[in-house]
Specification:
- The protein has 10 helices and 12 strands.
- It is α/β, with parallel strands linked by helices.
- The chain has one domain: P-loop containing nucleotide triphosphate hydrolases (Rossmann fold).
- Helix 3 crosses helix 4.
- The longest helix is centred in the middle third of the chain and has 18 residues.
- It is globular.
- The structure holds adenosine-5'-triphosphate and iron/sulfur cluster.
- The site of iron/sulfur cluster has 14 residues, from loops.
Length: about 325
């Protein structure tokens, strides 16, 4: 059995607007190993969520997966019929959204939706399914009887636990978590992150953690992918990214993260704004904001360069010419 669970190659996902084409994910390649947490980081609008939705083939219109491959256990998800894809969603690959209301129906008891999933995917009867839902709730620190509550009766942290219960009940091999803690207070955030850590350690589930807060990444991730304007600009182990960041954008992101720098340091902010993806800058997309920009950077897109084993960067500074 290959160690690589998910292998994405040359993925392009575009939004076709009347004003033009937004290249939200542009030639992205990455691997995710079994049992690893892969953090996908970058500013708002860099294409992280679009990447996550693409894996489940749930990119909303006017978005479209234009080319590339997404191999999951060696099978290209982009070539599967929709019916086969429906069986994979939730059962093999599931998603935890930032906003629980995407998943929780206000007029359904929170356990009910999960019971329906268990009936559809596992053929369970009502009683068996409710029992399993309550077991899973308990394992996530939700009292068993809360399974029969409506969403409005639960706190934000409890709702997010229910969303996680929905994502894990069928024991998927891959969980895509899109900013799962952003809407929560710091203490609840830590509790939710403990749950992900436990899932990884206990069940060897792989997790793609889409996140903008790098301080969370340091605690939880094995590998990190840095996205900028639809491109992967750096990829490495968590140690490589934190102790030896190569891309000027990654360095900027690290300097912007409050919990990573000493309290008395002035918080840095990367100059300028992320580009408009309808009309991105030529050459290196980061060049208008980069203090190390050279002439070539403005004209030619940098190649992806493997600087050390497992550590890749897309920047002209590392090219041998
Ligand atoms: P955020 O953290 O704000 O969600 P992100 O890094 O996840 O940002 P995406 O949400 O994937 O980035 O967005 C990438 C680009 O695609 C942005 O330029 C965004 O405006 C555009 N985009 C995303 N969804 C749509 C949509 N439904 N229609 C049109 N453009 C979209
Ligand atoms: Fe900066 Fe040039 Fe590297 Fe882009 S390619 S990040 S502009 S040095």
């Amino acid at each position: 059995m290959s160690d690589v669970l998910l292998s994405i190659r040359d993925l392009c996902v575009y939004y076709f607007l009347t004003e033009g084409i937004v290249r939200a994910v542009d030639n992205v390649s990455l691997d995710l190993r079994r049992g690893d947490v892969l953090a996908v980081v970058g500013e708002s609008g860099s294409g992280k969520s679009t990447l996550g939705y693409s894996i489940l083939r749930l990119v909303p219109p006017p978005g479209k997966i234009v080319r590339g491959s997404i191999l999951f256990e060696g099978i290209d998800l982009l070539k599967l019929p929709e019916e086969a894809m429906r069986r994979i969603r939730g059962a093999e690959i599931s998603m935890v959204f930032q906003d629980p209301s995407v998943v929780l129906n206000p007029v359904m008891r929170v356990g009910e939706h999960i019971v329906e999933m268990l009936k559809y995917h596992r053929g369970m009867d009502e009683e068996e399914a409710w029992k399993l839902v309550e077991d899973v709730f308990e394992s996530l620190g939700i009292p068993r009887d809360r399974a029969r509550d409506y969403p409005h009766q639960l706190s934000g942290g409890m709702k997010q636990r229910v969303v996680i219960a929905t994502a894990i009940v069928l024991r998927p091999k891959l969980i895509i978590a899109d900013e799962p803690t952003t809407a929560l207070d710091v203490i609840t955030q830590d509790q939710i992150l403990d749950i992900f850590r436990d899932l990884r350690d206990r069940y060897r589930v792989s997790i793609m953690l889409i996140i903008h807060d790098l301080s969370i990444v340091a605690d939880l991730a094995d590998r990190v992918v840095v996205m900028y304007a639809g491109k992967v600009v750096e990829e490495g182990s968590v140690e490589q990214i934190f102790y030896n960041p190569l891309h000027p954008y990654t360095r900027g992101l690290l300097m912007c993260t409050p919990r990573l720098i000493s309290n008395d340091a002035n918080l840095y902010s990367i100059p300028g704004e992320p580009p408009d993806l309808l009309n991105p800058p030529p050459g290196c997309r980061f060049h208008p904001r980069c203090g190390l920009c050279m002439d070539t950077c403005k004209k030619e897109e940098p190649p992806m360069i493997e600087v050390e084993p497992g550590h890749r960067v897309m920047c002209w500074l590392y090219a041998k010419r």
